[in-house]
Write a structure and sequence with these properties.
Structural class: mainly beta
Shape: globular
Radius of gyration: 13 Å
Strand content: over 45%
Largest sheet: 7 strands, mixed
Number of strands: 11
Length: 119
């Protein structure tokens, strides 16, 4: 089990930027793939971005070119840089730890951080 703690959410105007951070416990961070999910009210949780142990990334189509996922293994932290934010990006964002083979498989979750984008 990995403890994940997100930070960096908040209220921002459309077109603005936020950087989410997720600090992970334990000494095995570098062997995990990591992902960011989001869930808007009344909608299913969706995978926004994932990064493998080696740094390969993939993104939800609607955030490509605007969001960037990165990781710092020395700090046991994964980031989500969000630029050109839109009202439809409003959601609770969850960090996850997982494994990656043909796709990303999460096995642990943080508590979430709220992102609100005003128009």
């Amino acid at each position: 089990q990995v403890e994940l703690v997100e930070s960096g959410g908040g209220l921002v105007q459309a077109g603005g930027s936020l950087r989410l951070s997720c600090a992970a416990s334990g000494s095995r961070f570098s062997i995990y793939a990591m992902g960011w999910y989001r869930q808007a009210p009344g909608k299913q949780r969706e995978l926004v971005a994932a990064i493998t142990q080696s740094g390969n990334t993939n993104y939800l189509d609607s955030v490509k070119g605007r969001f960037t996922i990165s990781r710092d293994n020395a700090k046991n932290t994964v980031y989500l840089q969000m630029n050109s934010l839109k009202p439809e990006d409003t959601a609770v964002y969850y960090c996850s730890a997982g494994l990656h083979s043909d796709r990303y498989y999460p096995f642990d979750w943080g508590q979430g951080t709220q992102v609100i984008v005003s128009s």
